[in-house]
Recover the amino acids of this structure.
């Protein structure tokens, strides 16, 4: 059975470290690393090691106090490394090696004096960071060396130096960032100096029986990034300095091009990883390169030094490797990407990772699994995400649950979200929840819209859970009831719209609806090559930073779109998150136009008539066929008749409990698990 994976399962030596196969776990920042006890962390890594990986890399979130991402982050320089022994024991029980990743986050640190190669202002923290003087660079080098020595002494098989992303060392390596005119800049050797001194010192301190890995920005996605000749020189010098394996990653300081998003096709960065592996005789780790094991087997048959690392797939399914190898025939449970749950490889995150499919995975909401001592009869009104999850948790705790759904299918807004986003994550989440409902003892009643007041009069239940969601709110604009105005819900239930469309609203829903209107499904299912072409990403061997320098022509969009802002503060909040900036950039690339700082004077059957803020000057019209309202939502109040805040029998959850009528998926899941555990 395993013979078809003979190259993937072939052992490899990374310097003195022997790996049993080519499948490893990438560094995953779980948020458990900062706890005084690492019992939960060791349990997670034991689960990953049991799946069959050959190496796990534990994240040490901050090298020192000066590089801490938050006040509660443990600084490695002052850490008691002996606490990691539980993790080492858990991994070694499955023949799995362990590495410790050392990080200095540099300019994005939440400290009194954040530093980088040059000075500036962090767009993540809003704080001013400073050009590090030579003595602080020397101090950081000493801290890297001391931590590497400590890690080796407690039993780690390897140490990994993080010089990728927006880290302190990465700021020195990048020609797009490092404009210093001293010994730590000026030319290539100056930019390399910080990293090379760290590598030499750590390798010497660790001893010959320990391995050293280096992670760096291979595809910097900046036209001023490193050329291929510079990358070749760097990896040659790293080898001489003592590096035993390399991890090249896509990313850098500009964040103009998506690097971790649901819209990125599988295998986008493979050409760059393959180029690095072909250029080096050291083992090269391909991080989250692809989930297609047949493709990985082919690569490993051609490249003797290829090793593959996974992050989110290992979090999403405890049997990911076994299922992919054919040792377990169940479908793979996906990690559900969502904007508020965290990116597993994000070193800047200080909170625990959050799984939408298994909210208790990292030690959260343990009481939700405890059986109740006083079972109740529970009525859940509404079969959307909040209602389904509450019914499941309450049933698992021993309550008798009846779930009422007004339509003929469960899912609520998940169906709309799946259409908007046009990818499989919401559909996968719905499928997982529905499977669990089918295995439960929950009584699901379809096509029945119950009224809370009437249901209470029947006296059949002890507790009533109102999870009826929300509906689009129509803003107070003259002409909002015109025949060519539709809500986003009406649009997603197949109401046709013309070729010129105005979107009123500037939140996350507006971005999703805009993409839905601009593209057909085939466009959103781009190949890796067509995605690279669309974003202007080229061969790193020919283009500095992997950037072509221009955006190639993209096929014409389905419509001309106008995004009309309602509230400037909503826009500011929206664009604080990088994934929203990427989505807006894509819309602009497709020809959408943003209309900001205007008053909407009138909507009629031909146009949206606007004027400039604040004086209502420069009145003019935008010619449109239809207007789609993507403004705020309002709770479904009809289903709450009979509810008072003092009524202990009734509990509002999900969007129905929010004054705005909106709640993100992650917030819904968190709220449900918190409240259902107290029932």
């Amino acid at each position: 059975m395993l013979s078809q994976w003979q190259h993937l399962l072939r052992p490899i030596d990374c310097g003195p470290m022997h790996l049993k196969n080519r499948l490893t776990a990438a560094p995953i920042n779980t948020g458990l690393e900062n706890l005084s006890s690492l019992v939960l962390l060791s349990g997670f890594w034991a689960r990953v090691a049991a799946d069959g990986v050959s190496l796990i890399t534990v994240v040490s979130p901050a090298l020192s106090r000066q590089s801490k991402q938050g006040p509660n982050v443990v600084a490695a320089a002052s850490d008691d490394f002996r606490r990691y022994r539980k993790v080492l024991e858990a991994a070694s029980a499955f023949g799995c090696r362990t590495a410790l990743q050392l990080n200095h986050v540099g300019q994005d640190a939440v400290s009194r004096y954040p530093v980088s190669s040059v000075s500036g202002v962090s767009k993540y923290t809003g704080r001013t960071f400073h050009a590090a003087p030579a003595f602080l660079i020397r101090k950081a080098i000493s801290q890297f060396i001391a931590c590497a020595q400590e890690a080796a002494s407690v039993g780690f098989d390897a140490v990994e130096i993080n010089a990728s992303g927006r880290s302190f060392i990465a700021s020195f390596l990048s020609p797009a960032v490092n404009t210093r005119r001293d010994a730590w800049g000026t030319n290539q050797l100056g930019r390399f100096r910080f990293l090379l001194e760290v590598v030499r010192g750590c390798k010497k301190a660790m001893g010959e029986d320990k391995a050293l890995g280096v992670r760096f920005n291979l595809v910097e996605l900046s036209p001023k990034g490193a050329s291929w000749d510079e990358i070749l020189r760097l990896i040659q010098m790293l080898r001489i300095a003592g590096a035993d394996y390399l991890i090249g990653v896509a990313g850098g300081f500009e964040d103009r091009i998506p690097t971790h998003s649901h819209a990125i096709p599988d295998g986008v960065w493979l050409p760059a990883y393959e180029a690095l592996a072909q250029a080096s005789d050291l083992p090269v780790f391909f991080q989250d390169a692809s989930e297609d094991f047949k493709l990985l087997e082919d690569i490993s048959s051609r490249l003797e030094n290829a090793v593959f690392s996974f992050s989110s797939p290992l979090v999403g399914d405890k049997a990911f490797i076994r299922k992919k190898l054919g040792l377990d025939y169940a479908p793979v449970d996906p990690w559900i990407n969502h904007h508020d749950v965290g990116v597993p490889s994000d070193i800047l995150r200080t909170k625990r990772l959050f799984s939408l499919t298994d909210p208790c995975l990292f030690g959260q909401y343990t009481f939700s699994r405890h059986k109740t001592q006083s079972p109740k009869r529970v009525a859940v009104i509404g079969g959307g995400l909040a209602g389904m999850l509450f019914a499941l948790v309450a049933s698992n705790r021993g309550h008798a649950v009846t779930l009422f759904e007004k339509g003929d299918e469960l899912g609520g807004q998940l169906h709309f979200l799946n259409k908007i986003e046009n990818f499989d994550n919401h559909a996968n989440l719905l499928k997982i929840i529905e499977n669990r409902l089918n295995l439960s003892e929950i009584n699901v009643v379809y096509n029945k819209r119950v009224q809370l007041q009437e249901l209470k009069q029947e006296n059949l239940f002890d507790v009533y859970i109102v999870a009826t969601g929300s509906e689009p709110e129509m803003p107070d604009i003259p002409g909002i009831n015109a025949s060519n105005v539709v809500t986003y819900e009406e649009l997603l239930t197949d109401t046709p719209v013309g070729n010129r469309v105005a979107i009123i609203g500037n939140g996350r829903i507006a971005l999703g609806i805009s993409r839905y209107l601009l593209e057909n499904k085939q466009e959103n299912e781009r190949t890796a090559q067509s995605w690279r072409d669309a974003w202007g990403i080229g061969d790193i061997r020919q283009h500095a930073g992997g950037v072509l320098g221009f955006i190639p022509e993209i096929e014409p969009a389905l419509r001309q779109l106008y995004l009309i802002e309602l509230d400037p503060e909503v826009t500011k909040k929206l664009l604080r998150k990088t994934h929203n900036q990427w989505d807006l950039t894509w819309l602009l690339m497709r020809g959408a136009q943003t209309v900001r700082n205007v008053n909407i004077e009138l909507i009629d059957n031909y146009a949206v008539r606007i004027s400039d803020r604040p004086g209502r000057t420069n009145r003019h019209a935008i010619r449109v066929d239809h207007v789609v309202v993507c403004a705020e939502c309002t709770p479904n109040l009809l289903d709450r008749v009979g509810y008072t805040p003092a009524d202990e029998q009734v509990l509002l959850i999900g969007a129905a409990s929010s004054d705005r009528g909106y709640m993100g998926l992650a917030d819904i899941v968190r709220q449900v698990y918190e409240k259902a555990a107290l029932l």
In short: The chain has a mean pLDDT of 90. The CA atoms of residues 17 and 211 lie 6 Å apart. The longest strand covers residues 211-219. Residues 134-154 form the longest helix (21 residues).
